[in-house]
What we know:
By secondary structure, the protein is α/β, with parallel strands linked by helices. The chain is built from seven helices and seven strands. The protein has a seven-stranded mixed β-sheet with strand order 4-3-2-5-6-1-7, with helices on both faces. Strand 3 and strand 4 form a beta hairpin. The longest helix has 17 residues.
Amino acid sequence: MQTVQPLFPITAIVYPKGSDFEAFLQEVTDVMAARGLRLAGLVQHSQLRPGRAKCDIYLRDLSAGDISAISDDRGPHARGCVLNTDRLLNACEVVEAGLSDGTDLLVLCKFGKTEVEGGGFRSLMTRALELSIPVLIGIPEINLIPFRQFAAGFAREIKLSDFASDRVAAAERLCPASWPSDEAMAVGA
């Protein structure tokens, strides 16, 4: 059950390069899980393929450990988006069905093009917030303005570059228990 009501229920990690954030999020969620934090959400794993312009995209469900492919193989010369939005939606529905009072944190890999256009992780984030589950999500710099419009002042932003290479310290900083509560902010004011 949630014990901390954060002033900003969404923590957004803003990053310039997706591969750097992808590795960071994988490492930090592994540390959080090892320390007993009950995580829900989806972490991206990209896999480069020889002779292909686009990588294969997989999501790891942090609760179940299942890995789902969410990209389409459009051939070696594909240049546009290869995301299969139906597979993404299915992965979101599975995670949403598992959200409960026992969930400490919802972790999502990014607020990408699909979210900018109104789909993707948006409904999953909304449901988590309805259940008072804090959200941690990556934000590519290019999508920062649309994210701010979506978050409507309920997010704190941290640049990926603000985290040292110590993933344990980063995980501790990103745990909901370390987030300032409304009461703590009022006392400190």
